[in-house]
Amino acid sequence: MSNNFKILTILGSPHDRRSNTRALVEDFVEDVAGSGLPLEHRVVSLARKKVLPCKGCWNCTRNKPCPVSKRDDLEEIKAAMIECDMLIIASPVYTNQITAQLKALFDRLFTWCHIFPLLGKYSLSACTTGNDGQDEVGRFLEKMLATYGTYSFGTIDSVFGFTPGFFPGRERARTKNKSLAERVARTVLEGKKPPVNRMQRRMFRVMRRKMTGVHAIRCLRQGNVQGQPEPPWLRLKMMKFFIGKLKFTEAQLDTWAGFLDFELEWWRSRGWLDVKSFEQLTRRPIPAGFDLEQRLLAHDRGEQASEQVRDVAS
Ligand SMILES: Cc1cc2nc3c(=O)[nH]c(=O)nc-3n(C[C@H](O)[C@H](O)[C@H](O)COP(=O)(O)O)c2cc1C
Predict the structure, then answer these.
(1) What confidence score (pLDDT) does residue 309 get?
(2) Cα(73) to centroid(ligand 1), Å
(3) Which residues partner with 89 through β-bridges?
(4) Angstrom distance (rounded) from CA 20 to CA 128
């Protein structure tokens, strides 16, 4: 196995080889390599992969198999995302947003939005467009990359990517992105990370509130699990107040307490429920016996396709 730095690009364009977005990324990666970083670049082109849209069954959050994952290439794409050192997510602007192919992938990675599965990896987003929409797409991709726990170098984009293969903005974009390519190479070679950004902090706060909230309601309904921190008394008091005010029924409270099994188990096993900041999260070591790949890939979970799952899927 080589020691080269592994860059993975997920290309959301349906055009694969003729894609302007691919050209933008390949120029950039070539310039990173030209700045002295020995690397391997793999492109997973969604034009050549099948990723079915999410059915919204919530099975993944309950630790149950996804009803559609046996019929598409999701697991293979996930494995590539776990393996890489730097993830580039690239999409053209399609009607002011990312492509439907890429959105399907994000939706299918629903549980990944809560557990920082790619914590500590480097990342970048990339976007081409005719003349508009690149800011919205850049912001959205940055949010997803922060949600997955990566350290982003930001977004590279270009206008004047009119039609596949007709890309008059290409050289201009390459010149503009050269200094960033050099910075990427330098940062990686020095073993550093880009500074933690506002989006990373924000996504951490959002997820922390969500997961400690589910933990608290579960403690209220089912008691705590040994070794886990007790929810702060003030939070419990406020929860009880709002539960009374909003007149939640017992059944509703139990449903709430049953939310996000997979994610809560992840936070508990990683010892994250008492973590206060994104920086602390990245510094907390992975506990012995916590097999990230085993948990993220459907090795064994995929085998248990039960009647129940078929019911939800139909
Ligand atoms: C369905 C569709 C929607 C598009 N929507 C926009 C748009 O909202 N704004 C824009 O400036 N360009 C838009 N474009 C142009 C693409 O962003 C442009 O062709 C892009 O560079 C294509 O990248 P690709 O070759 O990697 O697929 C659209 C193109 C298509 C096919």
Answers:
(1) 36
(2) 25
(3) 10, 125
(4) 7
Which candidate, 303, 308, 301, places its Cα nearest to that of 64?
301
Which 3-state string (H, E, C) describes 180-200? Answer: HHHHHHHHHHCCCCCCCCHHH
CA of 165 to the centre of ligand 1 (A): 12
Asked whether 65 and 298 are in contact (CB, 8 A), the reply is yes
Non-local CB neighbours of 198 within 8 Å, separated by 6+ positions: none
If you measure from the C-alpha of residue 211 to the centroid of ligand 1, how many angstroms do you get, rounded to a whole number?
37
- The residue whose CA is least distant from atom 8 of ligand 1 is 95
**Is the sign of the CA dihedral 81, 84, 88, 92 positive or negative?**
negative
Within 6 A (CB) of ligand 1 lie: 13, 15, 19-21, 92-96, 128-133, 161-164
The whole-model pTM stands at 0.94
**Residue-range domains of the chain with CATH:** 5-189 (3.40.50.360), 198-283 (no CATH)
**Ligand 1 centroid – CA 272 distance (Å):** 41
Nearest atom in ligand 1 to 129's CA: 17
Q: 104-119: b or e for each residue (b if 16 or more CB lie within 10 Å)?
A: bbbebbbbbbbbbbbb
Does residue 43 have a pLDDT over 50? yes
Alpha carbons within 13 A on the beta-carbon side of 97:
6
Mutating to test ligand 1, I would choose from 22, 28, 93 the residue with most ligand atoms within 8 A of its C-beta, which is: 93
* Mutate-to-test residue for ligand 1 from 10, 17, 19, 94, highest number of ligand atoms within 8 A of CB: 94
Between helix 198-222 and helix 261-270 the angle, nearest 10°, is: 100
List pLDDT tens digits, range 115-173.
999 999 999 999 999 999 999 999 999 999 999 999 999 999 999 999 999 999 999 99
